[in-house]
Amino acid sequence: MGSAALQMKNLEFLPDGHLANLDDWSEDVAMDIAHREGLTLIEDHWKVIHYLRDFYRDFHISPVMKLMLKGLKSSLGEQFNQKYLDLLFPDGVLHQGSKIAGVPEPHLDAELENHRYTSKANFAENTEHFVGEFEYNGKLYEVSEKGNLLDQSLWDKDLATFLADKEQIKLTDEHWEVLNFMRKFYFEYGVTPMVYMLMKHLKEDLGASKASKEYLYTLFPGGPSRQGSRIAGLGEPQGCVDP
Questions:
Q1: Beta bridge partners of 149
Q2: If phi over 0 gives left and psi between -120 and 50 gives alpha, with beta otherwise, what is residue 123?
Q3: What is the pLDDT of residues 157-202, one digit of tens each?
Q4: Cβ(114)–Cβ(144) below 8 Å
Q5: 111 HSE (CA, 13 A, CB side)
Q6: Residue 109 and residue 111: Cα distance in Å, rounded?
Q7: Does domain 3-106 have CATH number 3.30.470.10?
Q8: Per the confidence metrics, is the pTM higher than 0.85?
């Protein structure tokens, strides 16, 4: 039995076929997983595989489809479109590709289970944000233990101002520029951006001066991703949130 086959024999896999321990991944392991999937890896497979691994290394989550397509087209060319990815990975690049790349399968925020916090906080003095539920203008709002709205359809700008006041932030045009960008990003890609992802895409859209860590933390001292997502009425960000 060859060394690669012996290595595969000793690996643990989750029920969906992904590696239980991501540190066990190697190119030999990837080739063996691909063989089990009926694929022979060519250069373009490897380009996608390494893109997936680089993205996971940088952001600690795997990219959802729209983010992946944008990144692949930007770095590898327009030919890396949905149709071509389907040819490379017939069982789906998100499922099959992430499995071979040794990274978790990505999920949209909407696909993740909301973690409800059962106790009532109602503007508790010992928290910087609401937890459980709170009342505003005669209406009851439920939030996660991290303070994010469970029903995002209830959000509006007046509520955002109220939430910001709880966190001792007076919203300015600069705050709204970031909040509106986060909401645009969420409704385009289906995920709330963590801080490094937020910085990367803000720089592309608004320039480096609006995307630096110092600038964003001046606006949102509690973390541009964590605190910003609460005020923007978005779901909890995934992965490495605010360093």
A1: 143
A2: left
A3: 999 999 999 999 999 999 999 999 999 999 999 899 999 999 999 9
A4: yes
A5: 9
A6: 5
A7: no
A8: no
Active site residue 240: yes
Please list, in sequence order, all residues whose beta carbon lies within 8 angstroms of the beta carbon of residue 55, skipping any fewer than 6 positions away.
62, 63, 67, 68, 71
What is the assigned CATH class of domain 132-231? mainly alpha
End-to-end CA distance of the chain: 45
Q: How many CB atoms lie within 10 A of CB 182?
A: 24
How large is the C-alpha radius of gyration of the chain? 21
The owner of tokens 């066990």 is 24
Candidates 80, 240, 241, 242; catalytic one: 240
pLDDT band at 118 (very low <50, low <70, confident <90, very high): very low
Torsion, CA 25, CA 30, CA 32, CA 36, rounded to 10: 120
What pairs with residue 136 in β-bridges?
139
Indicate the domain borders of the chain. Answer: 3-106, 132-231
Nearest-CA neighbor of 64 among 17, 12, 112, 7?
112
The reply to whether domains 3-106 and 132-231 share a CATH topology is yes
Confidence of residue 126 (pLDDT cuts 50, 70, 90): very low
